[in-house]
Hints:
CATH class of the largest domain: Alpha Beta
Largest sheet: 8 strands, mixed
Structural class: alpha/beta
Shape: globular
CATH superfamily of the largest domain: Acetylglutamate kinase-like
Number of strands: 25
Strand content: 15-25%
Amino acid sequence: xxxxxxxxxxxxxxxxxxxxxxxxxxxxxxxxxxxxxxxxxxxxxxxxxxxxxxxxxxxxxxxxxxxxxxxxxxxxxxxxxxxxxxxxxxxxxxxxxxxxxxxxxxxxxxxxxxxxxxxxxxxxxxxxxxxxxxxxxxxxxxxxxxxxxxxxxxxxxxxxxxxxxxxxxxxxxxxxxxxxxxxxxxxxxxxxxxxxxxxxxxxxxxxxxxxxxxxxxxxxxxxxxxxxxxxxxxxxxxxxxxxxxxxxxxxxxxxxxxxxxxxxxxxxxxxxxxxxxxxxxxxxxxxxxxxxxxxxxxxxxxxxxxxxxxxxxxxxxxxxxxxxxxxxxxxxxxxxxxxxxxxxxxxxxxxxxxxxxxxxxxxxxxxxxxxxxxxxxxxxxxxxxxxxxxxxxxxxxxxxxxxxxxxxxxxxxxxxxxxxxxxxxxxxxxxxxxxxxxxxxxxxxxxxxxxxxxxxxxxxxxxxxxxxxxxxxxxxxxxxxxxxxxxxxxxxxxxxxxxxxxxxxxxxxxxxxxxxxxxxxxxxxxxxxxxxxxxxxxxxxxxxxxxxxxxxxxxxxxxxxxxxxxxxxxxxxxxxxxxxxxxxxxxxxxxxxxxxxxxxxxxxxxxxxxxxxxxxxxxxxxxxxxxxxxxxxxxxxxxxxxxxxxxxxxxxxxxxxxxxxxxxxxxx
Length: 668
């Protein structure tokens, strides 16, 4: 088993204590090898240290070196009181930080901070954390030991990034690391670091520690590689955008790679390469909730849900190259890609019209200006001759994507994706879908990206919430709230739906929360507390403003519940027009003008919405649906007998009990 802990897990004394407990627990169950990142923020601080030295800021450099040393000494020194460990730690830190000081001094004198020097300086973050953790664990169990990953991870730096020599790396792991495991040692190794073929210290780039874990896990044919982070697993959306986002129990390597590329904070695509080759499962787990099962990444995906996640990437720009001179001319696209390749600019998304009149490219906003100049220079003759009209750049763009292996061959996915965007009036600038049908992406304006993610997430059923807004908090409204509170868990268990009350309103006041009213607020309302007496209760705005604020939550499956006795016909019609379902216990909108009834039914059918009114008569008996089912299955209703008015039934019962008529009417 390979365990990998990132910077957040190695951030504080408490989190490192958790890491140690997890390692010891797993070591009791199986053989483990632990890969660790630098302490949180240390890699960035070492990079800043080199840049300060490059600027000649000697005093700032020395201050930062002392601060970094103090961080490591205070954190790891507090984990054990062993005198021998304390003496060893101080000597080790003296040596390591003297080396860092000498490298910084060299940068300061030579005014040179080359890639090779940068790699050497940055490697100290992982070397410090892994060595200190190994020795701390050794004070508890002498089977723990430190092994330097630079001795067996071989990678050559290229323009595109480090390229690992897997064959040589496996040979070295077999020679240097495997003997330790055979002797029942439990190695702790630094992630991120490696050596070039000629022996120089180097790094695997950002997210390199995950890559290190995958490399060593594949070489050792580990049962699984567990990557510990600060979340319970890979989620259906960024929880900062969608509070209801859930954990995915299992995804495929392909899905994980797509998610990472399109903005999800999961393992880097290169991390999967060694695991895919040798079919090593990767599991994403939470250091701070170690009993959670996490997300398993393997070569198989679960069929459900069809769409696994909704992702977004911000800070993008869209380039549009168009002109009649592009139609039917070979080589235009290749020239665009070639010139951007020479500039080192990555294209994130491509969209081209079938007429070849235009081509759209989505790339990082930071590269947009350079890309425009490069393309204009490449096509200067075509621009002069008006064969290409212009290279137009749209800034402040984001991309939203849906990802899932189950999308392949499933009709209606694209329709649902674009319907969700259209419902909330989010304009699509460009569209892309791969032939693998693993993802669909759309470029939109950045201002809309949060709402887009929320709307799409809900449209595909990844949010299992039903959002209710209640009009009327008299006897019926209060009883409904009480019933919802009492049966909430049962509904969630049996129907897999979480009921949330977005707000409650009467004729003068209202209470509203986009995240849903709290349990305490609902209890107060159900027990009869007036809206205006609640802390968040305030004067009710106009119906139009109420609808605007409900729509601004970008929730789908919103249900308006009418528990009033007022004529809210216009409110029902407007709610349906805006795409909300309606449930009413109020008969007035259905018994006033027949044209209003027809308008309600026409809107319901056209919008594909639900309009339920079973509780409007019959004293709560399930009459309407029963009769409708009989008619739908071929029965013919000949005659209906009964007292269908709940009020009349109540009055008759009270009169039978010899209650005076005036008193019975007052009670009714």
